[in-house]
Specification:
The complex is a heterodimer of chains A (182) and B (772).
Chain A: H1 5-15, H2 20-31, H3 44-56, H4 67-71, H5 81-92, E1 95-96, H6 108-122, H7 128-154, H8 160-181
Helix pairs in contact in A: 1-2, 1-6, 2-3, 6-7, 7-8
Chain B: H1 7-16, H2 19-31, H3 34-37, E1 45-46, H4 47-50, H5 56-60, E2 66-71, E3 81-87, E4 90-96, H6 109-112, H7 114-118, E5 128-130, E6 138-140, H8 143-161, E7 167-171, H9 182-190, E8 194-197, H10 203-213, E9 229-233, H11 237-240, H12 245-253, E10 257-261, E11 274-276, H13 283-296, H14 302-308, E12 309-310, H15 312-322, H16 325-332, H17 336-348, E13 352-356, H18 366-379, E14 390-391, E15 441-444, H19 448-454, E16 462-466, H20 470-473, H21 477-484, E17 489-494, H22 499-502, E18 506-509, E19 518-521, E20 527-531, H23 544-558, H24 571-576, H25 581-587, E21 600-601, E22 622-623, H26 627-631, E23 650-653, H27 669-674, E24 679-682, H28 684-689, E25 697-702, E26 705-713, E27 721-723, H29 750-753, E28 763-769
Parallel strand pairs in B: 7-8, 7-16, 8-15, 9-10, 9-13, 10-11, 12-22, 13-14, 16-17, 17-18, 23-27, 24-26
Antiparallel strand pairs in B: 2-3, 3-4, 5-6, 5-18, 19-20, 20-21, 23-28, 24-27, 25-26, 25-28
Classes of the chains: A mainly alpha (182), B alpha/beta (772).
Chain lengths: 182, 772
Amino acid sequence: MIAQTPSLRSLSRFFFAANAAELQNAYDGLAAEATPPLPVVEEWKAVEFSFNRLFVGPRTLQAPPYASIYLDGDDTRLMGASTSRVRQLYAMLGLASPWQNQIPDDHLALELDALWQIEQALASVSSPQLEDARAYLIARLQAWVPAFVGRIQAAPQVHPAIVAVAGALTRALSTVDHVAAC
Amino acid sequence: MHESKSSGAKNIELALGSTLSRRSFLKILMMTGAAAALPSTGLLRSFSQEGPAFGRATFAGLGAYQTFRNACPRNCYDTCGIVSYVKDGVLEFVEGEPTSTYTDGGLCVKGYAYPRTVYSPDRIKYPMRQIGRGSGNWERISWEEALDAISGKILEIKEKDGSLLGMALTKYSGNFGITHYGVEGMLSSLGYTTRFVGTPCWPAGIDAQNYDMGNMWCNDPEDMVQAKYIIVWGANPAYCSVHSLKYIYEAKKRGAKVVVIDPVLTQTAVKGDEYWQVKPGSDGALALAMSRHLIDQGLVNRDWAAANGLGYDEYEAYIKANVTVEWGAEQAGLPVDVVKRVAEEFAAADPATIWIGYGMQRHVNGGVNVRAIDALVAMTGNVGKPGGGARYGHLFTWGFNYNAMVQAAPEGSVGYTGATGPKGEFDTGQGADATASYTDRTFNINKIGQEILDAQDPPVRLLWIANKNVVSQDFDKNKIVKAFEKVEMIVAVDLFFNPTVEQADIVLPTVTPFEDWTVNVSYWHYWLHLNEQAIKPLFETKSDIEIASALSAVLNAKQPGSCTFPQNIDAKEMMIKEFNDGIYQLFGITSWEDLRKGAAKAKLPSSASWSDLKFATPSGKYEFKSEIAQTNGHTALPEYKAGREAYAPLRLLTPHAKHGLHSQFQNLDWMHDLNPEPLVYVHPQTAGAKGIVDGDTVRVFNPTGEVRLKAQLTNNVPADTLLMYEAWFSAKNTFNVNLLVDDVSSDMGAYKTGSPGVAIHDQFADIEKVAA
């Protein structure tokens, strides 16, 4: 019934990766189920350098992976109102980030993780509350991820593997939306 | 948010707005077993897994603000106290410290922007290693990996050279918190190293005041309200010390006259009663001319000079023999009658004061020019008087323990055996190595490029950069970048990716004041501010002393005894260890914890420095004639010294900007809105002769280098002068005034700070229009 949960998890892991090995692991998980297939990566260091230019630093980020940048109308400040909102959502689910106040709660990987956890739970229990939370998170992600993906696509020197993952992210969110609407 | 938002999403939105709804939502999830079905094996963890404290503060919806006391440590006169408002662990906004009459509840625009520094998405978040310096190819590494690489290099250097002199430190004023002297402490704890010593800022004036009075010690700026006459000479408080302006305004309101002397019609100048546009570097000649007029008119306070001065008669004789008012006025580019009138007014006012700016001593004759101005204040009897004084700066309130700074070299360390001097203006001379047979090797902080190029036996192999954007702020950028090629490993500790980080092999992410424990004082006002940790450090950032401590642990694991810096430190405990009874007594507090209630001000016997007229000179007098100055290669009297000869058609001035403090703040969006791009300010007459109109792209060039930027025409600068404000704009903007500023020294500074200053304002350049 919920087709895309493994890819949600791999996507979350990809965007949270700290190095080339973690990127490769997450990418392999995604590649297993991706249509269209993800490009074959020959040099993982090149993906890592591009990933850091986009999402980590130390230079000005090409595509900050934080919701508030896109939702709060203030693209140069983290920890905005929508960061606080998603933290509250996690709390409503009895969840919290172990990196609270260190990594903003609205990091893409954390929001995807929340969605993945909800999908997992809904596979075994029926809960209108979780359905609501799921609908909210999907709407939220759909509200900011397109702008985020747009920045990735527009970034100079971006690695094709990351553009492909961004495409998989877009597809995963449109698929869950479709499923949710059923 | 989303047009086709479902009713489910709307339910959640409603629930998010109410603590009660959020609670009942979770209650239902728990009762129905839905909460337990969440796997919690991903990134987010459940409350029950992680224990009672985890996440609950958020959920409880505490909502109320916690307040913390902080201080702005960015090398500003004002060193403001800050009250920080934190909600759910997030710094929401800041305001000025209301308990300090100096900060008086208000910050400057830079200060109000602080949350945007803390939460800038551009902050350096993790230790990172650049694969190929300048390549832009960065890998994220753990602290363990970073410290392993650095400690490996340190041990390799020791093995290869038999000493650690191949490791060098350049550090300055990016964070003046007292615990940040732990950077120097870290180097000391490793052994004897190479230190870039001195200060780019104010050293010539420091030496000058030391020759004259035995120390640099200014009146309390708050007593300017009592002045009947204020000359602001080469300072621009409207940009650089906004909290001081209220005292000048109040003095004016009480009838004081304010004269502003500056080559540029600054925002301070327009607030004065009278503005003198002087030729840069002519300040000594002007002060001598004013002194000559006072002598001629019998307006010198001879009683004061006889009772409290040394060598006044010789000074007067020198002036009579060598100086005329006409000559001095011409040097300064001013009408003779105006010079005479203001000299008379200054002598007649009681008290009268001069604020000596740091800009006017950034010249090859800057130190001696400060001495001539000091003498003008002294010979009118205004030194030691509330509302009077030759105000330059002070270190009167800086008597901390420097516990983090003072570290012993590891046993058996080998170092330098040549002559050495003070390591900067804050060197208290109480280093643990005072009696050791070895010392650090000292290089001129203001000539980092040349020093690295010249360094041998050993060369600089490992350069540690902290609290300093060397490539933007130090002089002759091209030379620095070339010199860096010689260095085997460069480690930069910083908040943002700037041109220095661009040249680093490893960058270590550091904290803002809000993530740190320290204590701050000013070199201008007399307030003491506690800086509490208000929020958790973002990402993997660490303070300077936490980095030192972590490095020590790694080194001692690899080679026991190789580093004496304390391991596993607690930042708050380290802050507490900086306090002593002297500080408690001076500020009238019984514990550092008193500062949690607000700022404390030094209990001064008088608002005036030198109020007992016992000077710290060898004679105990105000030394118009200083033998120490003479011993150090200067004239014993503040005699006229010519400025630097022009080497290009136009003078180039690169003073402090309004919306930045050296490299800091200008990269923030708020500052960008106010000041989006660098400009060179050109007088219309000069521009006209070169066919330049407002907004043209121009090339400003001299033998040191060139910059390209837009021209703005203004009558605020003299026709023979170009002005561009120093600033680092952003990672995307390569503008750097120090492509044009060479590293020629000012006359003084070596005596008290270890190296002479730099003649930043004795620079020249040409300008031409280029295709945009």
